[in-house]
Amino acid sequence: MPLASTRRTGLVDQVISQLRAQIDSGEWGVGDRIPTESELSDQLEVGRNTVREAVRALAHAGLLEIRQGAGTFVRASSELGGALRRRLERSRLRENLEVRRALEVEAARLAALRHSEEDMAVIDRAMGLREEAWRTRDMGAFVEADFTFHRSVVNATHNTLLMDLYDDIAQVVYASIAHTAYEQSDEASDRPSSATEGIDHSGLTEAIREADASRAAREATCYIDELLSLTED
């Protein structure tokens, strides 16, 4: 939508609103690269300086991330998410795991109550990929599959606020999965130790399938507590 007719005063605010609308609508998702400064200037029919100021404002708010030489990327879907992500990036691993427990235990409970057949198929597929990656000791694939599994459980809650919050902390969730998966590994082979191998999600998967909310919550609590036991204070 061109903004050429907008008076100069407050023009930056108008551009900020327009860019935020692209994020709010989902047209630009978290992790997506947004159009270049020049492209946005042409699309909105405003000067590049105006676009630059608007992008910087949204970067300061935590919604965008400017990467020199690579472009500008969506970092969070809301100011709250941006602030939360910045805070979590400064936190210790133990604190991150405790936040994960707060969200994932409730997610497990709700997923057991609300999941659809399609949700269950996604969870099963993620579990299969996770198990295969572990069997072949492909740790990169294991981390990806484990993250996909946890995200699929959250998505099975059909609670959009919970899903958005989880997306906002996705980066630190992924980092904590990678850290704990490799922490006990042999430095020479990068193979996880038996301590990490003991973390199994089959019980959680079956609890969700059987709509056993109490058991699902217990299973989620147990695996987070086990991860916490592998970390230092």
UniProtKB/TrEMBL annotation:
Chain positions covered by the region annotation Disordered: 183-204
Occurrences of domain HTH gntR-type (ranges):
9-77
Q: Which domain of life is it from?
A: Bacteria
Q: Which Pfam families match?
A: FCD, GntR
Q: Which GO terms describe its molecular function?
A: DNA binding
CDD domains the UniProt entry points to: WHTH_GntR
What keywords does the record list, in alphabetical order? Answer: DNA-binding, Transcription, Transcription regulation
List the InterPro entries hit by this protein, alphabetically. Answer: GntR_C, TF_FadR/GntR_C, Tscrpt_reg_HTH_GntR, WH-like_DNA-bd_sf, WH_DNA-bd_sf
Read off the PANTHER family from this record: REGULATORY PROTEIN GNTR HTH, TRANSCRIPTIONAL REGULATOR, GNTR FAMILY
Q: Name the chain's protein.
A: DNA-binding FadR family transcriptional regulator
Q: Which organism is it from?
A: Nocardiopsis terrae
